[in-house]
User: Fold this.
Amino acid sequence: MKNNFSIQLLGLVLPYMCKNALTSKTIRKNVKTEYMKIMSRAKNIGNKNPLISSYILGAWFIALNRCDDLTPDENYRILEQGLLHSKMFRIVMGDAEHYLSRKKFIKQQRWAENTHKRIYKNDWVVNLIPGNEQFDLGYDYLECGICKLCKDEGCFELAKYLCKLDFMFADVMGLELLRTTTIADGGDKCDFRFRRK
Assistant:
């Protein structure tokens, strides 16, 4: 994937967010180096993809697992706690009203339709589902960019840890996420259903 500003910025920000747990400068340096190698190999998903930060986060998590002696569970907790304690992360995530706004829905609808063109090999393929009496907004992810990246990197088993972050993301925005299956766990899709808390 082309080395751009987002890739470099998140490569610097993620270690900073997790610095309390990643106390070794050597590990932080090694993770950054490995992350940049992964991103240079990663297939392009398009610069305007709303999930590019998730893709980048996936690459960083893979790098972290390659550069320390901790288990994926322990590394997941490092990443989760680093994000949760970051004010910047909470600002970027926004809130339920922004996420569920009509303006955002229209943008997401266009994006979801475009994913079915499969322009980028590692992109997600998504169906957007309007809310009803059971939920406010839904997505069925038929293909997952993080699963594809993990598979390309020979570590598909790490994808399920990144799926767990979705629940934390929803919580930070003031949403509840209901999900019964994921591609990372062998399902044919990831069924996201969001509702306001």
